[in-house]
Design goal:
This protein has 86 residues and is mostly helical. It is built from 3 helices and 2 strands. A two-stranded antiparallel ribbon has the order 1-2. Strand 1 and strand 2 form a beta hairpin. Helix 1 crosses helix 2. The longest helix is centred in the N-terminal third of the chain and has 20 residues. It is globular and about 40 Å long.
């Protein structure tokens, strides 16, 4: 469960991973090509962890901002009648 500035929401790791894959790896591959984009995305994912193997403070901050923006958007617009599966 995530609780932030605008409320809370349940987090599903598979959905978070999919969103990151689509937005981070996809953008890097698009910008740098298949081979270099994959190398860059692996380096990015490795940099997300601190020396203890936990998420770095920077990544925690980015994820909080991301989740807060989702909650804010939901609060400001109508909730769909049913969830959309992708």
């Amino acid at each position: 469960m995530y609780r932030g500035e605008y409320g809370g929401m349940r987090l599903y790791l598979a959905a978070v991973r999919l969103a990151m894959s689509n937005n981070i790896a996809g953008a890097l591959i698009e910008k740098y090509g298949s081979e270099q984009g994959m190398i860059n995305s692996i380096q990015f994912y490795a940099a997300m962890r601190d020396e203890n193997g936990d998420l770095s403070d920077m990544v925690r901050e980015v994820l909080c901002e991301l989740h807060d923006s989702f909650i804010k958007e939901l609060n400001e617009s109508e909730m769909p009648e049913a969830p959309t599966a992708h």
